[in-house]
Amino acid sequence: MNKQTSFRFYKPRKMKGRLAKLDPVKIADELARMEPELQATTFDQLSRIRALDVFQLLDVAHQERILEHLAADRAAELVEAMDPDDRAHLFNELPSHISEKFLDGLSPRERRLTDQLLGYPEESAGCIMTPEFVSLRPDWSVAEALSHIRKSGPGAETIHTLAVTDEHNQLTGMVELSDLVLAEPVRKVADIMNKELRSVRTDDDQEDVARLLQAANLLAVPVVNAEGHLLGLVTVDDAMDVLTREEEEDHARSGGAEPLRRPYFSVSDLRLAQSRIVWLLVLLVAATLTVHVLNSFEQTLDKAVSLALFIPLLIGTGGNAGAQSSTTVVRNMAVGHVQPGDFLRTLLREARVGLLLGMMLGLLSYPCVWIFADQSLALAVSLTLVSICSLASVVGALMPQIARACWVDPAVASTPFVTTVVDASGLMVYFLIAQAVLKL
Amino acid sequence: MNKQTSFRFYKPRKMKGRLAKLDPVKIADELARMEPELQATTFDQLSRIRALDVFQLLDVAHQERILEHLAADRAAELVEAMDPDDRAHLFNELPSHISEKFLDGLSPRERRLTDQLLGYPEESAGCIMTPEFVSLRPDWSVAEALSHIRKSGPGAETIHTLAVTDEHNQLTGMVELSDLVLAEPVRKVADIMNKELRSVRTDDDQEDVARLLQAANLLAVPVVNAEGHLLGLVTVDDAMDVLTREEEEDHARSGGAEPLRRPYFSVSDLRLAQSRIVWLLVLLVAATLTVHVLNSFEQTLDKAVSLALFIPLLIGTGGNAGAQSSTTVVRNMAVGHVQPGDFLRTLLREARVGLLLGMMLGLLSYPCVWIFADQSLALAVSLTLVSICSLASVVGALMPQIARACWVDPAVASTPFVTTVVDASGLMVYFLIAQAVLKL
Question: Does A403 touch chain B (CB under 8 A)?
Fold first, then answer.
């Protein structure tokens, strides 16, 4: 696992031999790290079956790029062989004229399944569910159930988890294949099925669905419509991918950039700059606030230039305290530990913690600044640390929650935005305190 | 799913009735959000079977707290019924005198399994593998394999994935239960098993193992020793938990705090402050660098106080650019897209992107500052933006990679540290440019 198998520097002729021997997982991983040009040519050298294996393991972004470069018939063949949910996910990302071309080329059965999934809203459970599942009846015996699975199993994406439905396709329970295999053949499905109905709706958020699968240790969760009719299953592998995608999004936004959605080296410099420039610009415009604040205190600054010495340290510390509180709150919102109803409780808590932290820092810095400068400046700096830490912690908890209330991803309102807000308000606090303490 | 079922305000007598009806997943979720005192009393009201279900769904931190408050015999019963890997994970977190007491109380079989897992290093695959698995022989028929599974399956943690080993317990392949069920009973296991050996070693890092499971869409991956002998399986539910734990760690550290490892409201204010104070202090000490830098330029500042107006804006923008580059690099290192060999490639790339971003920001800000102040100040600010963005992007890419080279979690060297380094060096750049441009 730790050895890095790289074939980036192999000659094309030698590569073909190597590719036939490598694990598809390794190939997919290497492809994902390649520069765009090499990706398609390498993929082209894979045998038919291997190509399909590898293709299904790739991210949507890479699937897209490879399809662009393949001969039309080979591309159509790959698309036809995909699982319907993965195919729908891919089509959602493709430019519509390309996805429509592929859609037209599909067999009637696959086309129907795909059309159905494409109808659901983005990021919903409907988009990632597989409509190819096996359902059992509660009054069947285990032997009957197993023989039904043997008949209809090969077309399904998973038979590890099986849904139990009545004659109206109403979901009544779930049963795992392992329980069927271990049970006496004469027992009824109804006796061994899990009646704890953990189902989700087609329009439930993908992330919530994935967290449910994780919290309940499930291999698949059934998706039903408003009437409780079974429409599909979301499997654990798709749930893991959703969580990773969401994490990547949160991570990128917490650093003030848009997610790349592909590996670092497979995007161009320009694309990388593009994912960052809007944020930088917005933040730069917001930062002009600090210029205005300082401008309005220019006289004070003129009288005591030494005040300027502590500006970066103070607003830096405020930014750090704000980052701490906002990342904690964003993360706990994402995993459901901070609910919309916890608004005030969170603010009060961060105010207390921020005050505590500020008091510790203020006490520690007082003697240090006194040695370095003079006593009244030390007092101003210490008092500012106390205020700025409390303020930053509250702002850090406030902004993600406001974002959520406005239906914006809470991660958007994170570290860089909090820092910028804290910079401006912290400066104001600093100069007001300094004016009072130094009697300027 | 969206409805929040809360029983925090129910009277104890009413609660018992409600608890009997609720899904264990919901109960576990609610327990995790409760303040410490309520948690144990609520748990105490659960029926025996339900208590076990709920207990197994809880995080280690909550399991720990609940065990503390339960009667000794009830606690011992819960621990005995846990899966060995979950139990080992719990014991690793418990104070050693408590875990030893529980270890002594275990049945000989469970004790042996647990002892075995406790011997592996922390964060290794060995700690999270289940030693209770079923293995098949390649020369068995499918019918023989299924009948073996029926006999030995009930003691295993999972039978969805089965290992195939030779008579020396050497791993030769893997087969899924679904493939066995769908195959002709007379076929040989060797014919239907997957010979692509994706196994890991006991001392492989948990996160790598989890990423492998995810990349290859596996339900379980076999763990072998140096001789290729099968020792256990890591299942997908444990892999998901590992990923979530690692994400939480990265997320907290990227915000400059230690991970809480428990839900926000279940920790005390003091514990929250504790997870932050060390980082704040270290960063505050690092930030004193900025005071020294400014101090050495005090004369320049005295001559042109208006230079101070742009300090927060410039170092703020530098911090943002640094945060963007460090979060991108840290994330791509975590998922394996930036490897140790990519050191220089990453630095060059970030230098180019940083320069590009800086030039865009510099060009845009030039006329704005000109209007606001004067032309030479505008020039100084623009040139500083170009330099600070390039510098920050490189530092953002450099620090996590240096951290990894020193065996420190790359996430530690993220946003707040990058910001602090960029603050000090950015100030130096600003004043040097300003001295040259304004001829001070």
Answer: no
